[in-house]
Amino acid sequence: MNRADTAALKAAMITAAEAIIAAEPELTRIDMVIGDGDHGIGMKTGFTAIRRELRDNEYPTPYALFHACGLCLVKSMGGSSGVLFGTLFIGGLETIRDLDSLDGGDMCAFLSGGIDAVVRRGKAKAGDKTMVDALLPAKEYMRRALPETRDIDRILEAAERGALEGVERSKDMLPRLGRSKGFRENALGWPDPGAVSVSVLLGGLKRGLSVQ
Length: 212
Ligand code: ADP
Ligand code: MG
Known about the structure:
Elements: E1 3-5, H1 6-22, H2 24-34, H3 39-56, H4 62-77, H5 79-90, E2 101-103, H6 104-122, H7 132-145, H8 152-170, H9 193-210
Bound molecules: adenosine-5'-diphosphate and magnesium ion (MG).
């Protein structure tokens, strides 16, 4: 599939939201070990709100669709990850402002803008054991795939592969001082929950597009 229009992207977002909702027990289990245990419930709340929002509304453009998704997360989730996942959808919007459909290059530009905004806002560095450790390799894999293909499903597949690799690598990282510092040693061997969420989100988007 080369391009996806607003309807296809909306269907993909609903599939992604369902994937996040289904991952809640796993996300909760991981955040219980290495964080304060609320990540799974927070994500489930945010993506349940997105699913409701998308079922009830129509959007003229991909810009309007993703803008609505970002606002939903910021409004419904609360906490640092609500703002950060909201930023992921909002930070790259300018790159797709006038488009009726997105190809892989457009999706790469949109997600990369969101990823850069998450890094600016959260100030996490690579290796701090955060969602950034899944987002940065996702961006890198998309960029590397682009000379070969502009198919949107193949670019999302590359993004998911990068994120999954980041999830694996996050298992060996210690969380930043200040966050879950009481759990620093327990965290070894477990992935960062936010990084897992990123991989579930990108995988859900990819599957939601490729089954159409
Ligand atoms: P909270 O940290 O408010 O309890 P959650 O438990 O929902 O929020 O989310 C925790 C996840 O948020 C972490 O696993 C990490 O991936 C991500 N996270 C937290 N702080 C930052 C940050 N400053 N930059 C990037 N990601 C962060
Ligand atoms: Mg938490």
